[in-house]
Amino acid sequence: MEELHREYSPRQVQSVFLYIREAHPGEDVPHHDSFQRKLDHAPKFREQFRVRRRILVDDLDGSGHRAFGGLPNMTYILSSAHTVLFRSAWTDSATVKVALDYLLDVQARRREGARLAPFYSELLGFRWVDDAAFYRGLEQNGPKAVLEFDEAKRMWARGEHLGSVASRREEAEAKPS
After folding, report:
1. Domain identity same for 40 and 118
2. How far is CA 143 from the centre of its chain?
3. How many Å apart are CA 8 and CA 14, to the nearest integer?
4. Cα–Cα–Cα angle for 139, 144, 147, nearest 5°?
5. Do the strands 16-19 and 75-78 form a parallel or antiparallel pair, or are they unpaired?
6. CB 69 within 8 Å of CB 87
7. Tens of pLDDT along the chain (177 residues)?
8. Cα dihedral sign, 43-127-58-31
9. What CA–CA distance (Å, rounded) separates 122 from 57?
10. What pLDDT score was predicted for residue 71?
């Protein structure tokens, strides 16, 4: 995303990063228990991930994060009037580049007088998976981050993250009528 920021900023495309929370807190990079701690972590995050875009720090309750969908790695492209022009449930720079090129082309055609009407579109994107790099990031946060993520993976494999239908049925049946 930093490369896109450098490429598109001369074309009046602004890019910001919303720092929401530590996705995988550990002993070395703990959960934000105060706004000051969150502010203190933001520059460390900037350095660790080489973020050069402006970073906006969400409030401790995650109001901004929830307003933009609550998923961990989303990307939005907004118009100058704050209309959502593109939304992706996962940040993938190749997909964002396609969207930016398309939207800038629309802008240029409108300036030339083309009458264009918006329509809704969907795209199933695919992201690069690098487990080794991901685990290196977890390890920087501390052993707790690795252990908790491994436990979460086991829960996902068992379907427990879905609040399994069987367990909900058992709970409903156990309640007196």
Report:
1. yes
2. 23
3. 8
4. 85
5. unpaired
6. yes
7. 999 999 999 999 999 999 998 888 889 888 899 999 999 999 999 998 899 999 999 999 999 999 988 888 899 999 999 999 999 999 999 999 999 999 999 999 999 999 999 999 999 999 888 999 999 988 988 999 899 889 888 888 887 766 555 555 566 677 775
8. negative
9. 29
10. 86
The length of the chain, given as a count of residues:
177
Q: Distance (Å, rounded) from C-alpha 36 to C-alpha 50?
A: 21
d(CA 9, CA 105): 16
Q: Residue 75 CA to chain centroid, in angstroms?
A: 6
Give the CB-side neighbour count of residue 135, counting CA atoms within 13 A: 7
Distance CA 88, CA 108 (A): 23
CB 51 within 8 A of CB 45: yes
Domain with residue 119: its CATH number is: 3.40.30.10
Helix (H) or strand (E) holding 10: none
113 and 167 housed in the same domain:
no
Contact 27, 139 (CB under 8 A): no
Q: 3-state DSSP call for residue 59?
A: coil
Task: Give the residue from 113, 128, 143 where a domain finishes.
Answer: 128
145 backbone dihedrals φ, ψ, rounded to 5°: -60, -40
Q: What residue numbers bound the domain in which 145 lies?
A: 130-177
Structure-block tokens of residue 135: 């685990």
